[in-house]
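Suppose you are handed only these lines of text.
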Amino acid sequence: MEQAEPENNALKNGYIYVPYDPHHYTFLFSYHIIMKIKNVARDSILALLYSLRLTSSTVSNGSLLTIVTFHRVLPQNLRKKYPFPGLVTTPEEFRWIMHTLIQLYDCGSVTDMMSKWKKYKKPNKPLMAITFDDGQEDNYRYAVPILKALGVKATFYIPVSAVEEGGMLWHDLLGFTVLHLFKKGPELGRVNEFIEMDFSMCRSPVEAARAVVRRAKSMDQQERVKFINFCTDKSYCPDWAGMMTWKQLRQLTHDGYEIGSHSMTHSILPRCSDTELKTEIIESRKILQEKLKVPVSTFCYPNGDVDERISKLTKKAGYTCAVTTEWKANRQKDNMFNLGRCDINPSKFLNFRGKLSKTKLAWRLSKLKRFLENLKKDDI
Ligand SMILES: [Zn+2]
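From them, the structure of the protein bound to zinc ion can be written out as follows.
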């Protein structure tokens, strides 16, 4: 008996099934060749710019403070199982990136780099602060040994409630729930009962997870909490995806690493009431200081979302600076409660051979790239 082919858009191994079409594959092949040529040309131009020092760190960021962001550091086999792979750096990639950055920059924690920055108007090597968001246990397990081996300090931004409860951040809880439910079909069961979204266009579980989290970010605090409680299930989350413990955080402070606050519940702060905001910003600092017995002087806005009400309260709460997710290097005259950061996504540093490239990393962090991007924005 002939087996019927799955219908268009039917699920196969967790992915949407696309029927065979020869024209489609010819198109893909030509596209692949054109992209390859484009990538070789781009790599050659970047190598030339680097050799002319036009993207060198000293020329680009001499008197500026660059802050880079990492999230999860996980081996490749676990990156494949994580709902947001774009947030993951493997330990091998992390070692390569840090090894390269310390050749180009003077790297350290936010507070250490801020005090050097105030002391030297033009330091010998441009300054760079290394930051980690979300306080996940993989940072301690995989990133810290590499930082120690290279002699680099960093700042870890901690969402307090998830550490206190030994749980997981809400977007991870939601992401793993969506991955689990997607295996049964893109209807997404209880998730869809609450938000009624059309997931038929999502080609993979990862795409569905991103769509659901995006939707949850648009909810106000109360509604989001209700949604998460209604549809998520902790049993869908693997052991390797949890948070650092207070003991591990104490060890980090003992070893000279800095701890900053990343709010209480990783809320989208502009959607919080004044009372909720006080808990997220003031209470989180108080708990971190009490538990760790160290001053906490830097804050990280979850999702980078900030407005004047939030930055004013952060300053009033006693922090000396706060960081966003806006891609920029910081000038001394900038608002210290609106510091930009460059999110490190290793896939953006690959050359046409698929290998990590120093010239590409230098390009992405360069003033020249920022300048050209601003020109493009002005055109629009
Ligand atoms: Zn975060």
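What can we learn from it? Residues 57 and 104 are 6 Å apart (CA to CA). Residues 53-162+243-379 form a domain with the TIM Barrel fold (CATH 3.20.20.370).
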